[in-house]
Amino acid sequence: MSAIRHALSTKREDDFALWYQEVISEAEMAEESGVRGCMVIKPWGYGIWERMQRRMDDRIKAAGVDNCYFPLFIPLSYFAKEAEHVEGFAKEMAVVTHHRLIGDGEGGLVPDPEAKLEEPLIVRPTSETVIGAAMSRWIQSWRDLPLLTNQWANVVRWEMRTRMFLRTSEFLWQEGHTAHADREGAMEETLRALEMYRDFAETELAMPVIAGEKPENERFPGAVATYSIEAMMQDGKALQAGTSHYLGTGFAHAAGIQYQDSEGAQQYCHTTSWGTSTRMIGGLIMTHGDDDGLRVPPMVAPHQIVILPMLRDKPEDAELLAYCEDLRKALVGQSAFGEPVRVLLDKRPGKATQKRWSWVKKGVPLILEIGGRDAAGGQVSMLRRDKLWNDAAKANFVGLPKDDFVNRAAGELEEIQSALFEEAKAKRDAEITRVSTFAEVEAYFAPDKRYPGWVEAKWARPTGDELEAVIQKLKALKLTMRNTPLEAEPVSGDCIFTGRPAVERIYIARAY
Amino acid sequence: MSAIRHALSTKREDDFALWYQEVISEAEMAEESGVRGCMVIKPWGYGIWERMQRRMDDRIKAAGVDNCYFPLFIPLSYFAKEAEHVEGFAKEMAVVTHHRLIGDGEGGLVPDPEAKLEEPLIVRPTSETVIGAAMSRWIQSWRDLPLLTNQWANVVRWEMRTRMFLRTSEFLWQEGHTAHADREGAMEETLRALEMYRDFAETELAMPVIAGEKPENERFPGAVATYSIEAMMQDGKALQAGTSHYLGTGFAHAAGIQYQDSEGAQQYCHTTSWGTSTRMIGGLIMTHGDDDGLRVPPMVAPHQIVILPMLRDKPEDAELLAYCEDLRKALVGQSAFGEPVRVLLDKRPGKATQKRWSWVKKGVPLILEIGGRDAAGGQVSMLRRDKLWNDAAKANFVGLPKDDFVNRAAGELEEIQSALFEEAKAKRDAEITRVSTFAEVEAYFAPDKRYPGWVEAKWARPTGDELEAVIQKLKALKLTMRNTPLEAEPVSGDCIFTGRPAVERIYIARAY
Fold it and tell me: What is the DSSP letter of B167?
């Protein structure tokens, strides 16, 4: 192994935001596109998204939800029907006004004034309105309910400050939209989707989250209740990684989604919507990344194992490659997480140490380095990326007989998956502090504190002006309320804001 | 079985265009969205697309092409760099000019004049320009070549006349974009993609196609050579179902895609692009549909087998359902086309004949009707949709012992797949007529001829004014040249247009 120390130029503790950008760039996940606020998702980043998508889609289908595809464009008039909704989104939408270009007489192009649209079109920031219009056509009777749809799509929200994966003008997501006969059915679906997201985040992404309800000021525009999963990043900030909304009958009134009940009376549907996006990839990076780059949980890694033959550009290489190809075949015959193991044999020319470093930065779960001596002795040299803290640390390589490794490969991957989860959960739990007074909140988030975590407080769920006062108090400390956890012990004691008896717990944090 | 005759209201021979619309509606594949030129793809249509997508994606990945994702928006300046390209697309693009809405003072919304973009953005009609900009960043040396990328995305081309799946303002597709060191490499890739499309169309979609080069007037804007696969619809018209373009160095010059060759000299890359879209679903309908609706090739059917228990709303139903559930489990344990068989047990309430009709219209390859007597006798009653020509025809049901059916289910599906292909191929081949003179073309496409097929002619590949004259002559007969087939016998004889010695064959047809 080489003595050269490969390293990122930024450590997490020095500048977390810069480290994040560097990981994305060094792991070749994404880059600026040159188009304002939009990124290019490169093969390694997109490969992770594809694995996430496949697994999430399986969960969505298993719940009986049908995938559909709805238009990218939404007429202004559809959008204007739901007052709160439009208020929430009007500030950040891309507006199509023309359908043709024309020469400007100087060799350039301009929108053709003759081709101005009668009604401008919005590039969807979310699809409640256009899907609501479809639902109003599809639903006639109680027999048509529940109606369960989902789409995988791109959406656009014009953002002034963008950050790759976390906040981009265009992003990729899935949005579930369902209609039900009553509140009960809709609430059940809202919470089913939330639980699906919680389990997906913790299982597939190995990212511990807290599932709970958002305070009313953080609700989706037009929703009656909004639920989220919240993850803690390694800088202590919260990331909302998925949301599920109970929309009541507001969108049904706006779009005319009605059904005839079993007694023959017309009723409005209760609707829900729920979504997760490429933002989760940002969460994955900031949960599992280390000072050597990304660490990808094996369940969503495009390659779970990379085999690196130590090629020497000599005739012996042929034998070494044959040995590695044998190993690759044996490994893809193994199954991990219910799927064939994904293995890449990296035959590219180049220095072995540089190639290793490229895979370390990308966070491939298992790297196998195979030299001529390994091949002759029927051995492999294995590096578990979850344990690697130093590129030069030979100690992290484990030598094993080839057959032993093949037999334990799936087990290693499963171990890495849970080790990443346990590590992240331990980190997060250690950074959640219970407080009983607002003074403790202020102390916890003292200005000189680097990377504070979250506080868990109790509150009386104030509303109106009282809530507004809380929001302002927190805002002064750059804090927001994240959610009130669904699975929490019963609460006793007083609200840290009002002094009245508390009714529930709430997490308070800085957030992305 | 019921004596009620379920039927579509339009037959293919009476009005093919109306029949097409009715199949889409009755099979619940798609519908108008209320947004100009955009459709809603419903679960059955989207399910077919998902199967197509999965299989095409496997082929793309197997060819070593990496999926990426590029921005929806393209700055006007990017687009204007390739002169022919912009000429070809400028007439039909959606233009984003504002990024915010504002109240109009009368309760409505208008684009905010304060939020006008400095440079308008085009909603991508295709991505050569924005991917070219990325390639220019990614490629430095010959070692980076070939660069093989693909994306699955939505694109927008403003269409005045739209037709579901065939021509919609927004559609879904995959677009492959590759860069190579030289012409040979790029041509090889162009033809590899074309052959992938040919094989996909004929294997997965059971749709016979002719792979060939488009005449120069039909080239993609900016391409040096365009190749297509052309399918014949049941009304005799041609449908271009996929294209592959050799772009030469034009886009590389426009975007600055350069590499250093092994001698250290700067060279421009040779690029390609290739795409298939939801348009193929239109081709599938018009290739395999019959007067009872759609027939879906089993390889891309969301459900390959539907089990219909003849429920009677009586206690005996439980036993019947248990029998059907057993059958379902046995079937999903079988494998067809290398994947587990996809089976739906349709437990919905409702009349069995109506439920059967709904699946007949949707074109599920195999329908199993199971009554109490079948269950008691360990039998199934099987309907092969490819053979059904009349909903009331009992003769098409075949009674079989359950275990026999389970064992032959995959075989039946494979037989249906090839039967659909053979049927379509026989129909197409019968409708291709070889002609030796232009007078024969005129006679073949006589105005009173209903649903004429194609003619295969020989030509000398005229260019310039001579080609223009050919185009006009054909246009008068509403005809276009489709392609010059790659796999054709050597040609002898004279060009039907110029009388000079012919150099190749060419297909001439009416087209979608």
Answer: B
